[in-house]
Write a structure and sequence with these properties.
The complex is a heterodimer of chains A (620) and B (215). Chain A has 620 residues and is an alpha/beta fold. Helices cover 36% and strands 14% of the residues of chain A. In chain A, the strands form six sheets. Chain A has a six-stranded mixed beta sheet with strand order 2-1-3-4-5-6, with helices on one face. Chain A has a four-stranded parallel beta sheet with strand order 15-16-17-18, covered by helices on one side. In chain A, strands 10-13-14 form a three-stranded parallel beta sheet, covered by helices on one side. In chain A, strand 7 and strand 8 form a beta hairpin. Chain B folds into two domains: 102 residues, 2-Layer Sandwich (Alpha-Beta Plaits), CATH 3.30.70.580; 100 residues, Alpha-Beta Plaits, CATH 3.30.70. Chain B contains five helices and eleven strands. Chain B is elongated, with a radius of gyration of 19 Å. Classes of the chains: A alpha/beta (620), B alpha+beta (215). Chains A and B meet through helix 9 of A and helix 1 of B. Bound molecules: iron/sulfur cluster. The site of iron/sulfur cluster (SF4) has 13 residues of chain A, from helix 21. The site of iron/sulfur cluster has 13 residues of chain A, from helix 21.
Amino acid sequence: MTGSRRDLIEKILYHVEKPGRYVGGEHNQIVKDWGSVDTKWCLIFPDIYDIGQTNLGLAMLYQILNAEKNILAERSFAPWVDMEEELRKHRIPLFSLESKKPLSGFDILGFTLPYESIYTNVLNILDLAEIPMFTSERTAEDPLVIAGGQACFNPEPVSDFFDAFVIGEGEEVILDISRVYGSWRQAKLPRLDLHLALAKLEGVYVPSFYSVSYHPEGLISEIKTNQPGVPQKITKRIVPVLPPHPTKFLVPNVEIVHDRMSVEIMRGCTRGCRFCHAGMVNRPVRQRDASVIIPTIQEAVNATGYEEVGLLSLSSSDHTEILDLTRQVYDCFHEQKLAFSLPSLRIESFSLDLMDELKELKPGGGFTLAPEAATERMRAVINKPLDDHDFYQTVTKIFEKGWRSLKLYYMIGLPTETMEDVDAILQAGIKVQQIGRKLIGKSVKIHLGIASLIPKPHTPSQWLPVHNPDSIQEKLDYLKAGTRKAGIKMSYNIPDSTLLESWLSRGDRRLNQVVFNAWQRGAKFDAWGERDNLHIWRNAFAEAEIDPDFYAYRERDLEETLPWDHINIGVSKNFLKRDYQWSQQGRTRADCRESCFMCGILDAFGEDRPADGFGYWGCP
Amino acid sequence: MNDTPVRYRMKYSKTGNLRFIGHLDTQVMFERALRRANFPLRYTQGFNKRIRLNLASALPLGFISSAEMLDFWLNLELDVEDIRQKLQNALPAEIRILELRQADNSLPSLQASLVSSEYRITLPALESPKEFKAELDKLLTQTEIPVTRRDKTINYRPLILEHELQSNPHDCFVVKLTLSSAPGANARPDDILELLGIDPADCVIERVRLNFSED
Ligand code: SF4
């Protein structure tokens, strides 16, 4: 039977685009004997292979799990629509890449949820795998279905589909979960006991143990536990010291998006930009020392043969050894002709010094800066202060160093924004272009990337309404006309394409029904934009009798119970409130490595903090 | 460093999952394997520096092969057996190195000297093998066999150089086809199967030999 299923899989692969997505077999892939292990994980990234395979979190978990003798971890991704059609036509349940075994044969399915627009893919995968979609429908025979990732800091809109969520960093807790699962299965207890044991793990959220009640007008009245012994609040999990970095990355055999290896040099950010989800949920700052990073890169290059390395962090310039690191990178790797990228550089001339150190290893293409706002007032509101003089000086230096193309990222739809603030973006673009033309000539290319603000949970913006699409459109039209006239390239998200994100990111449990309806009506690959799924979602809301505007356009009261209030990211709600008020007053807050503002991180995790000099933390 | 590059010529097989990896991806796979093996690699000149290597011929997606050829260049002359071992370790298991030798720099490129390819096609259980044979014979009596691929129609008849039908011990039929692979005159066996009403996905198509002009 298995033999014929495999033959069938091979046959359908002839009829799909890019079959290499579904076959595995990459260098460094780990295939274990199913008889030799106790617990079998399938790690699932619910988008296509091309997008998911380079996800660093996935690579970390794959290596951590497979390093254990009695555990195996395989991978699976969302099949593209042509493959889905073939799978359904031939009734082949979705399978893993390594052993081609159906997902239902695994013990634990671990989904990565990096963003909200991926939710319908999860449902589709469970359906293709013939696994009951709702937690309440699963029995002891079914795999445990869990999720982790950045979207899980507000897991409520998909709480009905997952047995448990990992809140925060997965590197340690994933083995705890494995252990708990192993003893539960040995004891042959009901599924409820597994849930109970999981809920007692730090950083694990079992949504079925929490009840949410609502006021008649729709606001949440209370979130409370319905099970003795489970915590009222779930505090995220962190690793006090960043563990050894994975190096044996799988090397895809087919071309994929961002086909390079990533090395995380630092986690967390202390800048405190008020719109930034990653900056709030990933505190405290922890970094890897250059003396660890260089051998890691060397080992990973030897293991993969990759020609390009991305040094990842939320703010590269803030790594305390960054200059020295770039020097060492050049010294160690110029003979191998590797290329390095260094994202999220600050707007200061120091960033150019870093590029100088990389010499010919610096990334090709243009230079990118993210001022986010163009007036001083607006920058104070979002807490991304930048001196105009420094900005133009940096821009001048970029052109002097010979870069011919510069991309600038800005946001619109910010609180208290006026047309003056929007016009300032255009004027900044024009001034930058003039500087470029003077230094480089006509061939200089300026590109404005315009995003509109989507307030995210657990940030000081979480109470804000999304601006209505008409006002966003008006601002976009203004910028479009201006950039066209000036010969500046502009890219932007059409207001409709971000609506889904604005509904789901601050959603509550009532949206489970909407997500389900949307999937049933055929929504999938919502992140891809090109598929026009928005009308499906509108119908899905209507069917559930829920008004989507409630989630997008409503300003929240500071005293309101928010759907994610029981999830504790370490940064306290009081701190966020204060920061929100400061924002309204146009008051900035300095980088907290200069002076600690007691955001709550040290209360939550201070005890775990390693002794001085080891595993640097940004908190003073 | 010796400035004259040292050329190596390799014959390899490609099987299993890797049959679903296309030509350009295979090229990248070899580049990365050569990096992993940590050889003194030769790079191409010019703006976009790439590892200097050369595949004889694109193997269509879905085909397996026991006869692929590849040239690559190093900056130094190394022991061939040593290269073979290191490179094999750096390659996915479904690529096996069958032969490796040093080759003269003056030889023409593999692509330029490739003349024809031999394929061994294991057919699915046929309802009527006789009928299949008749169909094949009929096809080959025609003087014009037009095949359209990417909006271009070419006559396959002169490109079909040899054919042979065998039955194997498992009662499966095996067709051996030798087809032209010369630049601009390349024929694909799956096209011929389709003309005969057979779904190539039901067959195992293996390239068993590449013929070059010097051979
Ligand atoms: S505890 Fe202090 S230093 Fe640490 S992240 Fe919070 S505000 Fe910044």
